[in-house]
Amino acid sequence: MKIFTLLLVQFLMLNMNVMAQNDVIKSRMKGKTILIDGNDNEWNKPLNFYDDKTGLMFDISNNEQNLYFIFTNKEEMKMRKLMSAGWSIELFSKEKNKKFKSKLTFPATKMAWLGDRRGAGSMEKKIKGNPFITSYQEQIPSIGTRGFQSGVDQVMLNNRNGIDIAIGADNDQHIVYEISIPLKELFNGNPVRLDELINLNITVNAMERPSFGGGDGGRSGGGMSGMGMSGMGGGRSGGGMPGMGGGRQGGVGSGMGGGRLGGGMSGGGGYRGNGSEERSSLFEKVSFKQKFALSAD
Q: Model confidence over 266-283: pLDDT tens digits?
Protein backbone atom coordinates (compact mmCIF):
# COMPACT_ATOMS: atom_id res chain seq x y z
CA MET A 1 0.00 0.00 0.00
CA LYS A 2 2.85 2.35 0.83
CA ILE A 3 4.48 1.63 -2.54
CA PHE A 4 1.21 2.34 -4.38
CA THR A 5 0.78 5.62 -2.49
CA LEU A 6 4.34 6.70 -3.29
CA LEU A 7 3.88 5.96 -6.98
CA LEU A 8 0.62 7.90 -7.03
CA VAL A 9 2.28 10.94 -5.42
CA GLN A 10 5.14 10.80 -7.93
CA PHE A 11 2.67 10.57 -10.81
CA LEU A 12 0.74 13.60 -9.59
CA MET A 13 3.94 15.62 -9.14
CA LEU A 14 5.01 14.72 -12.68
CA ASN A 15 1.68 15.91 -14.04
CA MET A 16 2.04 19.19 -12.12
CA ASN A 17 5.46 19.60 -13.73
CA VAL A 18 4.05 19.32 -17.24
CA MET A 19 1.24 21.74 -16.51
CA ALA A 20 3.68 24.27 -15.10
CA GLN A 21 5.53 24.46 -18.40
CA ASN A 22 2.33 25.10 -20.35
CA ASP A 23 0.59 27.46 -17.93
CA VAL A 24 0.39 31.16 -18.70
CA ILE A 25 1.22 33.16 -15.61
CA LYS A 26 0.06 36.71 -15.04
CA SER A 27 2.13 39.81 -14.52
CA ARG A 28 1.10 41.98 -11.60
CA MET A 29 -0.07 45.50 -12.37
CA LYS A 30 1.91 48.21 -10.62
CA GLY A 31 0.23 51.54 -10.06
CA LYS A 32 3.55 53.35 -9.74
CA THR A 33 7.03 53.17 -11.21
CA ILE A 34 9.38 50.74 -9.47
CA LEU A 35 12.74 52.21 -8.53
CA ILE A 36 15.39 49.95 -10.08
CA ASP A 37 18.03 49.93 -7.37
CA GLY A 38 18.78 46.25 -6.64
CA ASN A 39 16.53 46.33 -3.59
CA ASP A 40 13.47 44.10 -3.20
CA ASN A 41 11.56 46.33 -0.77
CA GLU A 42 8.96 47.38 -3.35
CA TRP A 43 8.04 43.80 -4.23
CA ASN A 44 5.49 41.60 -2.50
CA LYS A 45 7.13 38.69 -0.72
CA PRO A 46 7.48 35.86 -1.02
CA LEU A 47 8.12 36.32 -4.73
CA ASN A 48 5.54 34.57 -6.85
CA PHE A 49 7.53 32.05 -8.91
CA TYR A 50 10.35 29.58 -8.43
CA ASP A 51 12.36 27.26 -10.69
CA ASP A 52 14.29 24.53 -8.92
CA LYS A 53 16.80 23.78 -11.72
CA THR A 54 18.22 27.30 -11.70
CA GLY A 55 17.27 28.11 -8.10
CA LEU A 56 15.76 31.40 -9.29
CA MET A 57 12.83 32.98 -7.53
CA PHE A 58 11.22 35.76 -9.53
CA ASP A 59 8.25 37.99 -10.08
CA ILE A 60 6.91 40.02 -13.01
CA SER A 61 5.05 43.32 -12.97
CA ASN A 62 4.04 45.95 -15.47
CA ASN A 63 2.34 49.28 -15.78
CA GLU A 64 1.24 51.06 -18.94
CA GLN A 65 4.80 51.98 -19.89
CA ASN A 66 7.20 49.41 -18.47
CA LEU A 67 7.75 45.71 -17.85
CA TYR A 68 9.48 44.88 -14.55
CA PHE A 69 11.34 41.79 -13.35
CA ILE A 70 12.97 40.80 -10.10
CA PHE A 71 15.14 37.70 -9.72
CA THR A 72 16.85 36.33 -6.64
CA ASN A 73 18.53 33.09 -5.64
CA LYS A 74 18.53 31.77 -2.07
CA GLU A 75 20.69 28.71 -2.83
CA GLU A 76 24.32 29.58 -2.27
CA MET A 77 25.98 27.38 -4.88
CA LYS A 78 23.41 28.23 -7.55
CA MET A 79 23.73 31.91 -6.72
CA ARG A 80 27.47 31.77 -7.25
CA LYS A 81 26.96 29.80 -10.44
CA LEU A 82 24.95 32.73 -11.82
CA MET A 83 27.87 35.03 -11.09
CA SER A 84 30.65 32.76 -12.31
CA ALA A 85 29.07 31.17 -15.40
CA GLY A 86 26.76 33.96 -16.56
CA TRP A 87 23.11 33.75 -17.54
CA SER A 88 20.58 35.25 -19.92
CA ILE A 89 16.98 36.38 -20.18
CA GLU A 90 15.23 36.05 -23.53
CA LEU A 91 11.84 37.60 -24.28
CA PHE A 92 9.95 36.85 -27.47
CA SER A 93 6.53 36.92 -29.06
CA LYS A 94 5.24 35.02 -32.10
CA GLU A 95 1.94 36.87 -32.36
CA LYS A 96 1.06 38.37 -35.73
CA ASN A 97 2.21 42.01 -36.03
CA LYS A 98 3.69 41.74 -32.53
CA LYS A 99 6.74 39.60 -33.19
CA PHE A 100 9.98 40.34 -31.40
CA LYS A 101 12.95 38.50 -29.91
CA SER A 102 15.04 40.36 -27.35
CA LYS A 103 17.77 39.23 -25.01
CA LEU A 104 19.71 40.38 -21.93
CA THR A 105 23.03 38.64 -21.26
CA PHE A 106 24.74 38.78 -17.87
CA PRO A 107 28.40 37.92 -18.46
CA ALA A 108 30.48 35.30 -16.71
CA THR A 109 32.96 36.67 -14.19
CA LYS A 110 36.12 35.38 -12.54
CA MET A 111 35.22 35.47 -8.90
CA ALA A 112 38.11 35.58 -6.46
CA TRP A 113 37.81 32.92 -3.76
CA LEU A 114 36.54 34.81 -0.74
CA GLY A 115 35.93 32.03 1.73
CA ASP A 116 32.68 30.45 2.76
CA ARG A 117 29.54 32.31 3.81
CA ARG A 118 28.09 30.27 6.63
CA GLY A 119 24.69 30.10 8.23
CA ALA A 120 23.18 32.12 11.04
CA GLY A 121 25.19 32.41 14.24
CA SER A 122 28.59 32.39 12.55
CA MET A 123 31.10 35.14 11.86
CA GLU A 124 29.17 36.08 8.74
CA LYS A 125 27.06 38.41 10.89
CA LYS A 126 30.18 40.44 11.69
CA ILE A 127 30.87 41.10 8.01
CA LYS A 128 28.93 43.92 6.43
CA GLY A 129 27.32 42.84 3.16
CA ASN A 130 28.21 39.92 0.95
CA PRO A 131 31.75 40.14 -0.49
CA PHE A 132 30.79 37.85 -3.38
CA ILE A 133 28.08 40.26 -4.53
CA THR A 134 30.34 43.28 -4.06
CA SER A 135 33.06 41.67 -6.18
CA TYR A 136 30.47 40.66 -8.77
CA GLN A 137 29.05 44.19 -9.07
CA GLU A 138 32.53 45.58 -9.67
CA GLN A 139 33.12 43.17 -12.57
CA ILE A 140 29.97 43.76 -14.60
CA PRO A 141 29.30 47.46 -15.14
CA SER A 142 27.25 46.63 -18.26
CA ILE A 143 24.86 43.97 -19.57
CA GLY A 144 24.73 42.74 -23.17
CA THR A 145 21.49 43.47 -25.03
CA ARG A 146 20.12 42.32 -28.38
CA GLY A 147 16.91 42.68 -30.37
CA PHE A 148 15.48 45.78 -28.70
CA GLN A 149 13.81 48.49 -30.77
CA SER A 150 16.40 51.13 -29.87
CA GLY A 151 19.19 48.91 -31.28
CA VAL A 152 21.29 49.28 -28.12
CA ASP A 153 23.89 46.52 -27.71
CA GLN A 154 24.72 47.03 -24.05
CA VAL A 155 23.23 48.70 -21.00
CA MET A 156 25.17 50.13 -18.11
CA LEU A 157 24.02 49.13 -14.64
CA ASN A 158 21.92 51.77 -12.86
CA ASN A 159 21.24 53.44 -16.19
CA ARG A 160 18.07 55.21 -14.94
CA ASN A 161 17.01 55.71 -18.57
CA GLY A 162 15.43 53.31 -21.06
CA ILE A 163 16.32 49.71 -20.18
CA ASP A 164 17.37 49.88 -16.54
CA ILE A 165 19.14 47.11 -14.59
CA ALA A 166 20.45 47.05 -11.04
CA ILE A 167 22.13 44.34 -8.97
CA GLY A 168 22.00 44.31 -5.19
CA ALA A 169 21.17 42.11 -2.22
CA ASP A 170 18.20 41.38 -0.01
CA ASN A 171 18.22 41.51 3.79
CA ASP A 172 19.80 38.03 3.93
CA GLN A 173 22.55 39.07 1.49
CA HIS A 174 21.29 36.97 -1.40
CA ILE A 175 21.65 38.35 -4.91
CA VAL A 176 18.87 40.56 -6.31
CA TYR A 177 18.48 41.51 -9.98
CA GLU A 178 15.95 44.23 -10.79
CA ILE A 179 15.08 45.05 -14.40
CA SER A 180 12.85 47.60 -16.10
CA ILE A 181 12.16 47.39 -19.85
CA PRO A 182 10.01 50.00 -21.62
CA LEU A 183 7.25 48.22 -23.53
CA LYS A 184 8.12 50.32 -26.59
CA GLU A 185 11.51 48.52 -26.64
CA LEU A 186 9.68 45.25 -27.34
CA PHE A 187 6.73 46.15 -29.53
CA ASN A 188 7.54 47.85 -32.81
CA GLY A 189 5.42 51.00 -32.66
CA ASN A 190 2.18 49.04 -32.39
CA PRO A 191 -0.28 49.98 -29.66
CA VAL A 192 0.37 47.75 -26.66
CA ARG A 193 -2.66 46.08 -25.15
CA LEU A 194 -2.20 45.20 -21.51
CA ASP A 195 -3.00 41.55 -22.17
CA GLU A 196 -0.10 40.83 -24.51
CA LEU A 197 1.35 37.32 -24.31
CA ILE A 198 5.14 37.13 -23.93
CA ASN A 199 7.48 34.14 -23.74
CA LEU A 200 10.25 34.15 -21.15
CA ASN A 201 13.32 31.93 -21.58
CA ILE A 202 15.95 31.81 -18.80
CA THR A 203 19.31 30.09 -19.36
CA VAL A 204 22.08 29.66 -16.78
CA ASN A 205 25.38 28.64 -18.37
CA ALA A 206 27.51 25.71 -17.27
CA MET A 207 30.60 26.35 -15.21
CA GLU A 208 33.94 25.04 -16.42
CA ARG A 209 34.97 21.84 -14.70
CA PRO A 210 38.12 22.33 -12.62
CA SER A 211 41.14 20.12 -13.18
CA PHE A 212 41.70 18.62 -9.75
CA GLY A 213 45.24 17.94 -8.66
CA GLY A 214 48.11 19.67 -6.94
CA GLY A 215 48.70 20.59 -3.36
CA ASP A 216 45.79 22.94 -2.77
CA GLY A 217 43.11 20.31 -3.06
CA GLY A 218 42.51 21.09 -6.72
CA ARG A 219 40.75 24.41 -6.48
CA SER A 220 41.19 25.78 -9.99
CA GLY A 221 39.34 26.31 -13.21
CA GLY A 222 37.22 29.13 -14.55
CA GLY A 223 34.79 30.45 -12.02
CA MET A 224 35.13 27.60 -9.54
CA SER A 225 37.45 29.66 -7.36
CA GLY A 226 34.47 31.78 -6.41
CA MET A 227 32.26 28.93 -5.35
CA GLY A 228 33.61 28.38 -1.86
CA MET A 229 34.94 24.84 -2.13
CA SER A 230 34.45 24.08 1.53
CA GLY A 231 30.73 24.33 0.85
CA MET A 232 30.95 21.83 -1.98
CA GLY A 233 32.38 18.90 -0.11
CA GLY A 234 29.76 17.91 2.39
CA GLY A 235 27.13 20.28 1.14
CA ARG A 236 25.47 23.16 2.89
CA SER A 237 23.31 22.69 5.91
CA GLY A 238 20.33 24.73 6.89
CA GLY A 239 17.16 24.92 4.89
CA GLY A 240 16.04 27.03 2.04
CA MET A 241 12.98 29.16 2.38
CA PRO A 242 9.78 29.04 4.37
CA GLY A 243 6.71 28.21 2.37
CA MET A 244 8.67 26.21 -0.18
CA GLY A 245 8.38 22.74 1.29
CA GLY A 246 6.93 19.82 -0.56
CA GLY A 247 5.63 20.86 -3.92
CA ARG A 248 6.92 19.94 -7.28
CA GLN A 249 10.38 19.48 -8.64
CA GLY A 250 11.27 21.05 -11.95
CA GLY A 251 9.43 23.73 -13.82
CA VAL A 252 8.11 26.95 -12.39
CA GLY A 253 6.09 26.92 -9.20
CA SER A 254 3.67 29.63 -8.18
CA GLY A 255 3.33 30.95 -4.65
CA MET A 256 -0.01 32.57 -5.39
CA GLY A 257 -3.04 31.70 -3.28
CA GLY A 258 -1.33 30.05 -0.36
CA GLY A 259 1.74 27.85 -0.15
CA ARG A 260 4.34 28.07 -2.84
CA LEU A 261 4.84 25.08 -5.12
CA GLY A 262 8.49 24.35 -5.51
CA GLY A 263 11.05 21.69 -4.77
CA GLY A 264 14.35 21.21 -3.11
CA MET A 265 14.17 23.77 -0.31
CA SER A 266 12.87 23.77 3.19
CA GLY A 267 13.42 25.22 6.60
CA GLY A 268 14.94 28.65 6.85
CA GLY A 269 17.92 30.27 5.30
CA GLY A 270 20.51 28.77 3.00
CA TYR A 271 21.44 26.04 0.60
CA ARG A 272 20.83 22.45 1.51
CA GLY A 273 22.38 19.54 -0.31
CA ASN A 274 25.24 17.14 0.22
CA GLY A 275 25.31 14.87 -2.81
CA SER A 276 27.10 14.72 -6.12
CA GLU A 277 23.88 15.76 -7.86
CA GLU A 278 24.13 19.32 -6.52
CA ARG A 279 27.82 19.58 -7.42
CA SER A 280 27.42 18.13 -10.91
CA SER A 281 24.59 20.54 -11.68
CA LEU A 282 27.13 23.37 -11.53
CA PHE A 283 28.70 22.06 -14.74
CA GLU A 284 25.47 21.76 -16.71
CA LYS A 285 23.63 24.41 -18.68
CA VAL A 286 20.08 24.66 -17.34
CA SER A 287 17.09 26.61 -18.58
CA PHE A 288 13.37 27.00 -18.32
CA LYS A 289 10.64 28.63 -20.40
CA GLN A 290 7.51 30.31 -19.15
CA LYS A 291 4.69 32.20 -20.86
CA PHE A 292 3.22 35.22 -19.17
CA ALA A 293 0.66 37.89 -19.96
CA LEU A 294 0.75 41.58 -19.21
CA SER A 295 -1.84 42.79 -16.77
CA ALA A 296 -4.31 45.67 -16.99
CA ASP A 297 -5.41 45.43 -13.34
A: 333 333 444 566 677 899
